[in-house]
Amino acid sequence: MDLGRNIRIARVVRGLSSAELARRVGVTANYVSLIENGRRTPSLRRLEAIAAILSVPTSFLLRQPDTSAATAGAAAVVRQQILDLLCTMANDIEAAGEPSSYAQHATNERPEP
After folding, report:
1. Distance in angstroms (rounded) separating the CA atoms of residues 91 and 17
2. Is the pTM of this model over 0.85?
């Protein structure tokens, strides 16, 4: 399962440290690290909390890579998933009216000086 990898991707894109995610979820940073490294599986309640904090659907965190595409071009699949997530997050940030370097990068805008 790619749960840990998906959590790490969403956490990094959101600009959160593992310690900050842990604080918001109410667990230790070590526990978050264990999840991200595939050595622990969070309860459904914690998984839902993580998804809410990262502003992604729980289904994104549980998403498995497309194995048929993985053999033909795993890098392209992962790259597209990251771009899709960045665009979704940029739209969410823009809709909330929050300035973000992530939103500017994902939409190829240059920050104003």
Report:
1. 22
2. no
* Phi and psi angles of residue 56, each rounded to the nearest 5 degrees, phi first: -130, 155
Residues 6+ apart with CB under 8 A from 94: 103, 107
Q: Verify that 58 and 73 share a domain, yes or no.
A: no
Tokens of 100: 């973000």
Whether residues 59 and 71 share a domain: the answer is no
Domain that holds residue 37: 1-64
Task: Residue 7: name the closest of 26, 23, 46 by CA.
Answer: 46
Burial of 109 (0-12, 13-18, 19+ CB in 10 A): exposed
pLDDT in tens, 5-47: 999 989 988 889 999 999 999 999 999 999 999 999 999 999 9
**DSSP summary character for residue 39:** S
Where residue 11 falls (left for φ over 0; alpha for ψ -120 to 50; beta otherwise) is alpha
Query: Does one domain contain both 76 and 45?
Result: no
Task: Return contacts of 40-43, CB within 8 angstroms, 24+ apart.
Answer: 41/1, 41/3
